[in-house]
Specification:
Helix 1 packs parallel to helix 5 and helix 5 packs antiparallel against helix 8. The chain has 465 residues and is mainly alpha-helical. The chain has two domains: 226 residues, no CATH class; 212 residues, no CATH class. The chain starts with a helix and ends with a helix.
């Protein structure tokens, strides 16, 4: 592939990744920023409106300052040194600056949209439920994207370079962002290989994108100025008619599960925990599709899935905050509460196995080895989740422990989490030892026996509550 096309693809890939990471990884904090009452707080201080506007603007910049500075300095410097072209490095500097402005405008727009149109409004319509689900996906998208960028950076760059080569005859590709800036950087580097027609298209489109970036920068500053005076471009929540309260008695454990799901759905940070095991499984499945899968990789994957899933039990209790105090006044047994939340946690883990099966079908890979061990490991994970919940609820019931503060009290959180991790780690370590000393059938037998024994012992302890 010609070197100039490699540069086009590499620069375009970097700009696209930069736009994604800044925009979506900043969305979580930006949503909190636009929904905050910062103007109301600052207005009580002896500050002028101009000072408040500066303070709000600096607060926004502090969210993104390090990523912006790092991308704006390191990439152009490394490119200029590696290519030996000062002009190419200078053009890449302006390309990164334009991309960062686009990312800031996109972030603040999405944050305002999601807060004003989704998070701040009530209602149970299908449309709003769908919008909340989309916001939830976007909330956890950065973790997925960052993993792909880190692990598949070479493949992403090769894909963009291949696109540049495949459409090299389609010269109007130079009009499309980010390829237009990629062509501009490439021709600034390789002055002896300039296609003047493509260069002209790239210059025209780049001037247009720079003009758009100026408009975006004005939009961002105007939006922040509105926040500083207490508007923020955010619509006030609409008043809705209060409906009659309907009480539907049902089986206690079903009611607990429904309540937990509804409470989590109102908070993207909590709800994302339900999807993280499945997303992590999908990512690992993609990684495993490029190579062979052995016992060590399988057991390592199971421990990673268990580690993420076991964050759920303490979360399912702490999410209620002070409202959890009322649980002790209800005619509920400890075992009902433990079994209901353990069932929800185990279902979340089982859903990740369903995702793994779907990934195997789509990628046409044989993941039967992982699925077999994963299904057996369900018993061990169920036992670990029951153990975590038993420790937490026993402490809550006996010491009037404030569940809403479980994350603030790190020592308590560790005390709950570590026993669960040890529980899921025991069959994994035993299987690795058996693998060194025995054949495959013995390894599977040892793994199955320990997992079932853990489930039986912890389950018996819980049923005695």
């Amino acid at each position: 592939m010609p070197m100039e096309l490699v540069v086009v693809g590499g620069v375009a890939a970097f700009l696209a990744i930069l736009l994604f990471l800044i925009a979506f990884m900043g969305l979580q904090v930006a949503t909190s920023f636009v929904s905050s009452k910062i103007a109301e707080v600052l207005s009580t201080l002896p500050l002028s409106r101009r000072d408040i506007s500066k303070a709000v603007f600096l607060s926004f910049i502090r969210i993104f300052d390090m990523p912006l500075i790092v991308a704006l300095t390191i990439f152009p410097v490394i490119y200029a040194i590696s290519s030996g072209s000062f002009l190419g490095g200078l053009v890449s500097f302006f390309s990164v600056a334009v991309t960062e402005i686009f990312a800031l405008a996109l972030t603040i727009s999405l944050a305002g949209f999601f807060y004003s149109r989704i998070l701040s409004l009530g209602g149970r319509s299908i449309w709003r439920t769908l919008l909340r689900f989309i916001f939830l996906i976007i909330w956890i998208l950065p973790s997925f994207g960052a993993y792909l960028v880190i692990n598949f950076a070479v493949q992403i760059t090769q894909t963009f370079a291949s696109m540049a080569q495949a459409f090299s005859s389609f010269q109007f590709l130079a009009l499309i962002y980010p390829f237009s800036l990629g062509f501009l950087v490439s021709y600034a580097t390789f002055l002896d290989k300039i296609n003047y027609f493509v260069l002209g298209l790239s210059i025209i489109s780049s001037v247009g994108y720079i003009a758009l970036a100026v408009k975006c920068l004005k939009f961002v500053t105007c939006y922040i100025r509105q926040i500083s005076v207490g508007f923020g471009g955010i619509g006030m929540p609409k008043r809705e008619m209060v409906k009659d309260t309907v009480i539907q008695p049902q089986v206690p454990w079903i009611g607990i599960i429904r309540k937990d799901l509804r409470m989590a759905s109102r908070s993207p940070s909590y709800a994302s925990l339900f999807l993280l095991p499945a997303i992590q499984t999908a990512i690992l499945a993609i990684s495993f599709s490029f190579g062979e899968i052995g016992l060590s990789a399988t057991l390592g994957m199971l421990f990673g899935m268990s580690l993420v899933t076991l964050l759920l039990p303490p979360t399912l209790l702490s999410i209620e905050g002070l409202a959890s105090v009322y649980a002790r006044s209800l005619p509920l047994k400890k075992r009902t509460l433990i079994l209901a939340k353990a069932m929800l946690t185990t279902t979340t883990y089982a859903f990740s196995l369903v995702v793994l099966f779907a990934a195997a079908a789509l990628l046409k890979k044989n993941f039967a080895f992982i699925l077999t061990y994963g299904a057996i490991h369900t018993f061990s994970l169920a036992a670990a989740s029951m153990l975590e919940l038993k420790i937490l609820i026993d402490k809550f019931w006996s010491e009037a422990f404030a569940l809403g503060n479980v994350y603030a009290r790190l020592s308590t959180f560790i005390l709950v989490l570590v026993p669960g991790l040890i529980m899921v780690l025991i069959p994994i370590m035993a299987a690795l030892v058996a693998h060194l000393l025995a054949d495959y059938l013995m390894v599977l037998t040892v793994f199955f026996t320990i997992a079932i024994s853990q489930f039986a012992i912890i389950g018996l302890a819980v049923f005695r509550e």
